[in-house]
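Structure in, sequence out. Go:
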């Protein structure tokens, strides 16, 4: 009889039973003079002691402004040193940090501010071609809970100075009254499937998740971690910042947002030992003109996550970027985020073809989406997660919480997965992404992986579009490598005889990029909208449409 697709991450390393502030204090006591945070684009460097002092100043300023335990404080900014200081200061003050997506437009900003009941917002003057201050002013009358704002560009120093009259004992008393089960963070879902919901996470959720990511990566005080992914997202602030500060490693942030040239420069100049990114970021670095002149000798490990990781890209990262101990993480915002992670000493095939085994102290199971029964090993089904990492719930949305987390506290991810006999998990698609063509189940991930083997394909995303005859047809968006020329007819010929006929895309769209969230996740629902709207002009088997 086959084993069931269930596993528990037993571990001899205990969960951390402390708040984020308590953990940071211990790290400062252990390695206060070591570098904690480097932001080359801002000319900023801080040791752990200096970082601690900055968080103390800001936490006191929050108390001086009347921020109480459980009050929501938001930050709307790209990556910067102020973001990191705010992350830890709000945790020490007992506030709940609300991460505001740097890409939000006025309507999205208004939703986040009102849905969270934000009292104080820290914001950049703007980012790229956006004026944040002007955007906020337009919607502020419709945000009654918002009491105060501080523009980081010209108000940061004054804000820190505000806390000077607050006694050390007052902050210490606030910290002593906190528990590790308190909510500490609201992260809005990325919007790949619709209206963002506020995943509410505790100290216990995110501190431990970051800690165990760092444990698996083998972090220590000597590590310097290049983090070009956004802090506003769980990849940056948990797998990134908290993995570092729980181990005394240094956070290296190349710039306000990902740029392959700045990331490559930071790796070399700061002698980074670890590198993070979503697959599109690694692809951009591999294809950049500066790649061949970059010294990667200091790198040893890192994380590729956030979206499906193409096997061919993973192989190039290991071989050409010297990241032999690269790992893949899988998870979601609502699970703090990581549920599975490959290990640095896993066989190569496990590290390129799976998202690894279960994380310590986490349970996962794979169920039949209809019956709810656990499927045998090797069977496809929906991946569910349970344990310390599962969010407290969606902020002020009990109905959405009940729909996502069952009575036994299993979080339904919506991802289709398969577990092998050794407990390693492969993600084969999303339930809503699965294409049903004439009764045949087509899994986009399988076709995408095949298309990556084409020497001129840099990236590929496969979706289903409506069809009167078959219900759905397969459509592929394909991004060529620099200088390469592709067309649908040639790609169809490449597929013919290599994958089943019903899996070969009927429609092809040759593109320079995909609709993306700010974190680098592909928005397949937008791709479907765009492609469906253009379908009337499509040319089956070739061309750049729909």
């Amino acid at each position: 009889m086959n084993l069931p697709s269930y596993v528990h991450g037993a571990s001899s390393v205990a969960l951390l039973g402390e708040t984020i502030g308590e953990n940071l204090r211990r790290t400062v006591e252990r390695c206060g003079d070591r570098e904690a945070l480097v932001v080359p684009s801002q000319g900023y460097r801080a040791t752990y002691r200096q970082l601690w002092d900055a968080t103390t100043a800001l936490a006191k300023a929050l108390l001086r402004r009347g921020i109480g335990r459980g009050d929501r404080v938001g930050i709307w900014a790209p990556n910067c040193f102020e973001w990191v200081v705010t992350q830890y200061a709000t945790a020490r003050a007992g506030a709940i940090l609300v991460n505001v997506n740097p890409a939000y437009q006025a309507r999205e900003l208004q939703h986040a501010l009102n849905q969270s009941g934000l009292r104080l917002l820290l914001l950049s003057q703007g980012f790229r071609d956006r004026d944040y201050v002007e955007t906020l002013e337009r919607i502020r009358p419709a945000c009654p809970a918002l009491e105060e704002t501080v523009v980081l560009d010209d108000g940061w120093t004054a804000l820190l100075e505000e806390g000077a009259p607050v006694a050390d004992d007052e902050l210490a008393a606030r910290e002593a009254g906190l528990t590790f089960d308190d909510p500490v963070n609201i992260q809005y879902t990325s919007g790949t499937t619709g209206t963002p919901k506020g995943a509410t996470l505790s100290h216990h959720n995110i501190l431990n998740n970051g800690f165990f990511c760092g444990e698996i990566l083998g972090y220590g005080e000597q590590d310097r971690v290049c983090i070009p992914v956004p802090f506003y997202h769980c990849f940056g602030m948990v797998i990134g910042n908290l993995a570092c500060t729980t181990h005394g490693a240094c956070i290296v942030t190349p710039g306000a947002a990902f740029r392959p040239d700045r990331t490559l420069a930071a790796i070399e100049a700061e002698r980074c030992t670890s590198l993070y990114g979503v697959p599109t970021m690694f692809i951009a670095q591999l294809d950049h003109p500066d790649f061949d002149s970059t010294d990667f000798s200091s790198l040893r490990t890192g994380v590729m996550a956030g979206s499906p990781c193409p096997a061919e890209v993973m192989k190039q990262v290991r071989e050409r970027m010297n990241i032999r101990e690269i790992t893949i993480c899988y998870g979601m915002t609502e699970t703090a985020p990581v549920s599975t992670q490959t290990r640095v000493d896993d066989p190569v095939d496990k590290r390129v073809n799976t998202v690894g085994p279960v994380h310590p102290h986490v349970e996962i199971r794979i169920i039949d989406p209809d019956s709810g029964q656990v499927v045998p090993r090797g069977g496809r089904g929906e991946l569910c997660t349970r344990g310390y990492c599962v969010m407290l719930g969606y902020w002020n949305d009990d109905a959405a919480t009940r729909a996502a987390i069952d009575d036994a506290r299993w979080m339904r991810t919506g991802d289709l997965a398969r577990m092998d006999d050794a407990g390693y998990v492969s993600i084969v698609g999303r339930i809503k992404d699965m294409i049903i063509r004439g009764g045949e189940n087509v899994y986009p991930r399988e076709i995408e992986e095949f298309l990556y083997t084409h020497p001129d394909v840099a990236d590929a995303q496969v979706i289903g579009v409506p069809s009167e005859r078959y219900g759905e047809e397969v459509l592929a968006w394909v991004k060529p490598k620099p200088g390469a020329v592709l067309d649908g007819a040639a790609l169809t010929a490449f597929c013919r005889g290599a994958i089943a006929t019903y899996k070969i895309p009927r429609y092809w769209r040759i593109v320079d990029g995909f609709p993306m969230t700010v974190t680098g996740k592909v928005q397949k629902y937008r791709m479907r909208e765009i492609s469906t709207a253009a379908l009337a002009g499509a040319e089956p088997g070739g061309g750049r449409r729909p």
